[in-house]
Amino acid sequence: MSSIINSDYLVIGSGIAGLSFALKVADHGSVNIISKRVAGEANTSYAQGGIASVTTDTDSIQKHIDDTLIAGAGLCHHDAVESALSNAPERIRDLVEWGVNFTRTDNGSFDLAREGGHSEYRVLHAADMTGAEIERALLEKARQHRNINIYENHLAIDIITEHQVLGNLQSAFNICFGAYVLSEKDNVVVPFQASYTVIATGGASRVFLHSTNPEIATGDGVAMAYRAGVRIANMEFVQFHPTSLYNPGKRSFLISEALRGFGGLLINGDHERFMPKYDARAELAPRDIVARGIDAEMKKRREDCVFLDMRHLDSAEVTSRFPNIYQHCKDALQIDISKDLIPVVPAAHYFCGGIMTSLNGQTSMQNLYALGEAAHTGLHGANRLASNSLMEGLAFSHNAAMKVINKRPRNFGSVIIPDWDESGIVDEKEWVLTRHNLKEIQNIMWGYVGIVRSKKQLNRAKRRVHVIYQEIEDYYKKSKISGDLVELRNLAAIAFLIITSALRRNESRGLHHMTDYPDKSDKYLKDTII
Ligand SMILES: Cc1cc2nc3c(=O)[nH]c(=O)nc-3n(C[C@H](O)[C@H](O)[C@H](O)COP(=O)(O)OP(=O)(O)OC[C@H]3O[C@@H](n4cnc5c(N)ncnc54)[C@H](O)[C@@H]3O)c2cc1C
Q1: Which domains does the chain have, with CATH numbers?
Q2: Among 122, 206, 287, 505, the one annotated catalytic
Q3: What is the pTM of this model?
Q4: Does the annotation count 463 as an active-site position?
Q5: Does the beta carbon of 12 lie inside 6 Å of ligand 1?
Q6: How far apart are CA 258 and CA 241, in angstroms?
Q7: Residue 118: closest CA among 214, 271, 307, 260
Q8: pLDDT tens-digit series, residues 275-315
Q9: Mutate to test the pocket of ligand 1, among 45, 371, 389 (most ligand atoms within 8 A of CB)
């Protein structure tokens, strides 16, 4: 029997979205943040390039909006773009106030980078470890706040809705009361109850074989919301980063596009520059175009990777500007990025789709909010402009916080949250077989649902994932709960959501490229909603 842990706000996830929301509401109520590993283990910590915001007179909000709309290929929600980007300079001020140290020029102004798809230099950065610096500062602030409790190694399994609770509910549908959470250390499931529950669990790129994301990116929040009947949108739009370090068998490592922004060139095995063949903007074209260019070049030449060439640039500057990438390449492959060619391949990087929200982060379920990469706000449309995602996490967390601190939660009557049913066993043999399903899902998704898709491939993927999904569900129902099992189950749900969404879009737009439907069609100028 585990006792219920109560708070005004339950925040699931400790990346930029969860932490910034928590910091904004903590003066108005108690906040429990749960995080499935150590708190700093989040996609946020791995962001290298930076965070986009207009901060100079030579730039304008309208230009940032225009660049975002162009990248989004017709599917951006104009109100979301406007809301996030026009308030971006204020959100940068929040970060600075919370103690984030951005890299500055000699005269003290922000040192700005330009990345693919941006018409201006507007990307603030902290060397090439922007996310780590943001995460450090926010976590430090959150730990100091007396109203915030952080529960590390606590994994949310499912949100609690009126389907689970007993009692005297006045309204009989669509309310969130918190989440069932697995405390991994004690191996018990604890109900966390809250007036407001916030899903800020990040992305799901680990559903693909090659991914730039850390292991936490298993789409738990989106899967939980889907199981609870919450609306999910645009899961077909997965961004593949064009350049992750090619180092087979090892964890992917991102080679930030800031290197291309700085003048790096992409060349093939014969040392020929190839991007100008695919797009006039060459290396600085939006990510989907660069990723497809690399994919096409590799397939045409049957090569396992292409190369990023920085050798023509000032060696001292390259080393000082990208210290993290320099060190990683040195350690992993013994190459000096200022003198040697860097082998690169595309890898799954970012989810534009997710849990559908309003501009205030409100989902289709009462008292349930979704923020950051787990959410679909409409900011990115069919393709994310580089460095807009950290800002998305900040901007909509602010909006959500402003909404909930001014709103008393509705009283739905008395509720009793039952304990988690802990019965079940672990059949080791069956678990080994079930676990193989993870690699199988990742291979299917990479092979059939990757950078370039077709109806035939998607249908093949659908059939295979369906069988695996059933196997995992059967095992889940009779087994004792574990973190690995929860994540595997969630990844199967994410695979299903991506394939189902992709099959509904018979066109090529932004990040969704179908060989049998190579053009955009006005018929699909709408979100894919599940
Ligand atoms: C290598 C890399 C480089 C990037 N570079 C940039 C960049 O330069 N600029 C930019 O704008 N964006 C960049 N991005 C994208 C950006 O980092 C993410 O989109 C953003 O950080 C997401 O923030 P978040 O708060 O939504 O999620 P995250 O930072 O991923 O945080 C999610 C949190 O939820 C927790 N969690 C997940 N599931 C559960 C569960 N079931 N129970 C409890 N806790 C859970 C995780 O442990 C984690 O703490 C990059 C991403 C990567 C991987």
Answers
A1: 242-346 (3.90.700.10), 428-524 (1.20.58.100)
A2: 287
A3: 0.94
A4: no
A5: yes
A6: 12
A7: 260
A8: 999 999 999 887 888 999 998 999 899 998 999 999 999 99
A9: 389
